[in-house]
């Protein structure tokens, strides 16, 4: 990958909103670390200490913590108020409170891995093509390298659960999972003025383009993938 001297990194001239967006991404990475940590623990309780999918989830949790530090590297170029690392959240459980352990694991795997991580992979691929050479392109590349295996945690657990029991109940939750992922992946709202300019060299896709790409990924990849296991909406 092409390197640039830190002194000439294009980030030195980035507008403040770029750092606002990457600060929010740092928060999302830390949240993801907490969710994968909980998923790894739950999988271990459910399937035993040598479960391979639990091991993948554990790796994903430490990847997400590393992604947060990549965001920090970007934030070092920004306003002082963004340079203090955000606080890592506790383990986070997802889904309605009445789910059994096995069903909570499946819910989390589908919501976070099959849906959110697949969307994130598509967005990062598009960002990577247009990111400015230097810290931004390097960061997008490093995060992208991990996202594919994060989505695979979900497809692996989904395939395993579908082979063991009826998982049709997940279908009822898919629209809300997609909705939550769309909100999470859209990032902080840009003002109307900001949304009219193109910040893709800073790893920020125009909102209309991001929406179209997510829509395409939901209908072209995620829903057909879930459908293979009988999860349909
Ligand atoms: Fe990440
Ligand atoms: Fe991830």
Q: Rg from C-alpha positions? A: 18 Å
Number of alpha- plus pi-helical segments: 7
Order of helices and strands: HHHHHHH
> What does the average pLDDT come to?
92
Separation, N- and C-terminal Cα atoms: 42 Å
Outline: globular
Give the helix/strand class.
mainly alpha
Task: List cofactors, ions and other ligands.
Answer: fe (ii) ion
Strand portion:
under 5%
Low-confidence stretches: none
Tell me about the largest β-sheet: none
Task: State the helical fraction.
Answer: 55-70%
Number of strands: 0
How would you describe this protein?
The protein has 233 residues and is an all-alpha fold. 67% of the residues lie in helices and 0% in strands. The protein starts with 15 loop residues before the first helix and ends in a 6-residue tail after the last helix. The mean pLDDT is 92. The longest helix has 32 residues. The relative contact order is 0.15. The protein contains 7 helices and no strands. Helix 1 runs antiparallel to helix 3. The chain is globular. Bound molecules: fe (ii) ion (FE2) (2 copies). One fe (ii) ion binds next to helix 4.
Defining traits:
233 residues; 7 helices
Task: Describe the SSE topology.
Blueprint lengths: L15 H32 L4 H24 L25 H30 L4 H30 L9 H13 L5 H5 L10 H21 L6
Helix pairs in contact: 1-2, 1-3, 2-4, 3-4, 3-5, 3-7
Bound molecules: fe (ii) ion (2 copies).
Structure summarized in a few sentences:
With 233 residues, the chain is mostly helical.
């Amino acid at each position: 990958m092409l390197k640039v001297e830190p002194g000439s990194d294009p980030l030195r001239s980035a507008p403040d909103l770029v750092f606002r967006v990457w600060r929010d991404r740092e928060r999302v990475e830390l949240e993801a670390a907490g969710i994968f940590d909980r998923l790894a623990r739950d999988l271990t309780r459910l399937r035993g200490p040598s479960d391979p999918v639990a091991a993948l989830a554990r790796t994903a949790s430490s990847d997400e913590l590393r992604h947060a530090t990549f965001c920090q590297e970007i934030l070092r170029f920004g306003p002082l108020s963004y340079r203090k690392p955000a606080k890592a959240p506790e383990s986070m459980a997802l889904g309605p409170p009445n789910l059994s352990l096995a069903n909570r694991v499946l819910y989390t795997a589908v919501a976070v891995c099959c849906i959110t991580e697949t969307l994130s992979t598509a967005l990062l691929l598009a960002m990577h093509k247009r990111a400015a050479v230097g810290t931004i392109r390097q960061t997008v590349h490093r995060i992208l390298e991990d996202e594919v295996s994060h989505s695979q945690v979900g497809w692996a657990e989904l395939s395993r659960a579908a082979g063991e029991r009826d998982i049709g109940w997940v279908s009822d939750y898919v629209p809300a999972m997609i909705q939550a992922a769309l909100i999470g992946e859209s990032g902080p709202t840009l003002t109307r003025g900001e949304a009219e300019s193109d910040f893709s060299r800073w790893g920020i896709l125009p909102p209309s383009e991001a929406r179209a790409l997510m829509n395409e990924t939901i209908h072209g990849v995620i829903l057909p993938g879930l459908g293979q296991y009988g999860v349909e909406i």
